Batch of 4 targets.
Target 1
Amino acid sequence: MEPRRFIFRRLIQIFVIFFVILTVLFLLFRLAPGDPISRMIDPDMTTEDAERLREQLGLDEPLWVQYVYYVRNFFTGEFGTSFHYGQPVVKIIWDRLPNTVLLFTSSIILSAFVGVFLGKIASWHKGGKIDSVLTIGALVTHTVFLPWLALILIWVFAYKLAWFPITGMVSEEVWLDPEAGIVAKALDVFHHMALPLCTLFLIHFGAYLLIMRSSMLETLKEDYILTARAKGLEERVIRNRHAAPNAALPVVTSIGLSLAFSINGGALTETVFTWPGIGRELVFSVSHNDYPLAQASFLLIAIVVLLSNLVVDVLYAYLDPRIRY
């Protein structure tokens, strides 16, 4: 199959899957218990005022009418206004998205780099002490409960040692200081980011290490590795130039999907560290029945994940000449 034809077919599949997701999200939020109006009503508001508010938000319309408006607004780029913030949903997402991308993209890249490097070393020392220590360490960190790890790091390094801020992304005294320059503000952000970045690194690097180790062990059994050794090539050259590039293919898939799912911001991480990102807003919007904000956040995640799968498939064919579509 030609690459263009493959991409065209995948785009059609993506559109169908996305439309199903679009519909399911609409139904889930409308059928879920709770009512956004009940959270917005002031104790002094009359029943007539509450009904007027419901009418202004379009919640008095039949479900099928709401669905038609919902689909039409999505394809015209109108995601509505947040029930809670009273601001356009697009503005809220674009304000939070850079914070999520900064934190989670940094953590995934760092985790992948360290995980791949240590995975190569573990596979090269299969059955030895180095392999055992790295494998056990990866299993422990990868399976630990994320909120517990985050709270432990906060308690030790933020509360007891006071090396890092407990929560938030910036310090008011730095950002409100007219004399503070770009460097000072950037360092302040990275100071706040240290603990959540460390938490995500410890959780994720183990997965890359284990994937790389397993893939390397399979690759080292291939005939071309035996041929390289028969030619008298150095073990370091065989490992880094012949085995590692081919063994890294499963890691590429994992990294691509991780980058896609990072858009949701890791709701638990952002909530624990009060990091102002998409994940934290996602939790808040769902718990407060803020339909427009929650739907837009989930749809953003769906779009990025679906397109990332397509990119990974195409990238696979580019990295491995044996794969053809």
Target 2
Amino acid sequence: MFYDKTVLDNGVTVITETMDTVRSVALGIWCSVGSRDEAPTDAGMSHFIEHMTFKGTPTRSAVEISEAFDRLGAELNAFTSKEYTCYYSRLIDQHTADAVEILSDMIVNSTLAQDACLSEREVVLEEISRYEDAPDEQVHELFASTLMPSHPLGLPVIGSKDTVGGFDHDTAARFHREHYTTGNMVVAAAGALEHEAIVGMVRERLTLPRGPRTTRTHAVPTAEPRLAVITKDTEQAHIVYGVVGLPARHEDRFTLAVLDAVLGGGMSSRLFQEIREKRGLAYAVYSYHAQYQDTGQFAIYAGTRPDNAAQVISLIKAEVDRMCSDHITADELDRVRESIKGSMILGLESTRSRMTRLGKTETTGGELLSLDEIIDRVDAVTIEGVRTLAQRLFNGQHALAAIAPFGEDAIANLL
């Protein structure tokens, strides 16, 4: 086994990977709560709590938290997703105990003070405004809400101005009490460490209220053709076309990675070559997939001049149809296999990437495989398997989202 794992009596999980060739440690405290776990009136609260955790405890102000990590020569940050929130630090190994103590203090003892809540919600409202001024980012959330309109995964992580504008100490404290419990916590670490030492630090410091993991309702969204357009005075039409994908533990997830790479995963991909290189219709065109506990999404993005939007959408659909009707070539399969394996191995050469893999997989109930096991799964993908999966995914039940200076009628016939 390449990792060590201990579940404490109170329900906190500690999972580590020792790396003998480094002098640093990446440490993450993961909470299995994200935007999908929020009530409609709490939309964006997971992300807001992430912000507030940095705003002080009874023994440390926000400035003192920052100064403490600066003294350690450490990196400190956090992020929120649809299924989890992570607080992490990367630092030299001799300061690991200090990092565990400070991060635990932030998470366990955050005061969520009213004045800080009122100030920070203005910061988040500015973040939402900034996001709305970036249509190439906003269109992906528009696509998710179009693809899964009745599923919590369709909600934006950042929330909305209406919900965030109502956040205060009472609402934040209630959400923190409900979700920041021992059963929801995973501590992941990778680097120059001893597992039992990390376990001891966590047992002493991460003293949250006892509680089981938050129950999460699993449901596969209903697939049907859907179209959404936000009409905005933009220079480009930002387009996302896609379908419901696969959940995180699906047996065909490695086949999906190959399909994604062939279709739009890089400069040699079919979409890039056809739309950008051959026709010059877009600067950015790519595909991507996201996998969650119960479902997933597969999407294709392109940004193009508005008068080229209909042609680009038609070309995307043509390449999707070709994936379903024709086999990929042996050369394509060999090329993307090596690309996937290379990206994975290079990406796991840092302590942070290894910690993230441990924490994300454990928090979401995924399958934690060794590098050799992953390589074997990638090598087992077949040409016929890629076409069969394409036929299953691209079955006509797709969603199309756009932010552009035109209305739905301009592309409705392409749905």
Target 3
Amino acid sequence: MNEVLEIRNLTVHYGLGTRGVRAVRDVSLTLHRGEVLGLAGESGSGKSTLAYGVTRLLPPPGVITGGQVIYHPQNGEPFDVLKLTDRQLRAFRWARTAIVFQGAMNSLNPVHTVAAQLTDALTAHEPVLTRSQKAARVREVLDLVGISAERLGSYPHQLSGGMRQRVMIAMALVLRPEVVIMDEPTTALDVVMQRQILSQLVVLREQMGFSVVFITHDLSLLVEFSDRIAIMYGGRIVEQGPARDLYTDPLHPYSAGLLGSFPPLRGPRRELTGIPGSPPDLSAMPTGCSFHPRCPQAFDKCRSRLPVLGPPALATEEREVACWLHPGEQQGERQVLSMPR
């Protein structure tokens, strides 16, 4: 698969100087064309900050202090999104990369109808379209997400939570972008509605061919839906690989802890274990591996040296992990350390 979006060593701070907090730390990820990349982690791990940094939607005092976001169009030369002018950025957003926010009620304008909000995006990016062409596009995209055209004149408060979320997805797809970033879009919905929306999203991706970055704290939700999964902790990627491999054989203790915090989708019942302790304070990160204060398998090296994300010594090239339990050649180690008893 060809890459469509490359994140290279992206670093994001909230505030600058001695009181600044580094919320995203040298993150590198690649999204391939037509792929669903899941991004999982606890609240405060940096998932949403990463998404807003990639789309340059960071609210103050957030600021990108390093890295690149390289977009690869189907036709044309790759370019760095972080170097676009304001005018170029307005043309890029929604047309090339769209985002579905977590709270649909807060993201939709309460004083405008569904039709008006969808039409605004078309007017801003495709002004050559006639009124009838815009209306046809709006009806088409609403039909794709399972909403009747009768709802075109409805206001957000007149829709259910699931319908509002579908309108947000329709708004993200109305300009047919190549990348859709979804920031916990089903968190406030019941499990039945979650399943309906995710199943519909799978069908839409097959029909339209866009790539997805799906952000959630629920790792079990990503296993069936994603092609690959990346795990974030303390502003860093600590593990990434094919969804099935990560589900059946998590390499990082944090990934295993996340999987143990949710009931399995299939198979026998098992006791939920959870993860002891709390996520780290980003303004006072622990030395070494940031997970070591909560890790049941931590040893001396974990407390003093930061592991580098890379292929472990005994795994396929598709997998990467930042853990001293699975050191690879990129960390100067060729033998796998035995787990402490």
Target 4
Amino acid sequence: MSTLFRRKSADSPTESAEESVTSVTVEESPEEASSKAYTPGKGKATPKRTDGRRKPEPPPANKREAYKRMKDKQRAERSEAMAGMKAGDERYLMPRDKGPERKLVRDIVDSRRTIGTWFFGSAFVVLLGTGTGNPAFVMYAQLVWFAIAFATLVDTILICRKVNRLVRERFPKPGVSMRTLYFYAFMRAITFRRLRMPQARKKFGEAI
């Protein structure tokens, strides 16, 4: 009796280990294991790499079609360049408009009302007045033109002083001479706002 009892007690760890293995096997069936490894689909097929590539344009059938394609391409490039120039994109600007210093000068001029925009308009009125032959009209027209010219000179001096102060504050070592920036500011100040290129980014009185 005692030997039988000891044999059962000795076999009990093995039986417990078998039961644990059986329980593990029951808990993780092949279906459950495969379900864990399963990844749900995206709902649509994955596109091929060739689908996202741009297909090459077929060659033109004749010279007339080739010429038409060339003209369309040039027109699109000109439109893109004009839009970039108006927006002030450095890639499309002319050499006279490139650089952060000139961009700052444009903002300084565009943020204020300039008297110089009336300079050429008044000169045109004087030219018309001289053709009328009326001495009184010519005299008054010239007086108005000289007054606008003097006011333009004073306004230009004020603009240049502001350009000098802000450029030296923000660009201690500017890559453009100050005389060039003064002349650039003057030319932009006497140009009508709608005709300025690049177009004005600042509104009147807006901070720079």
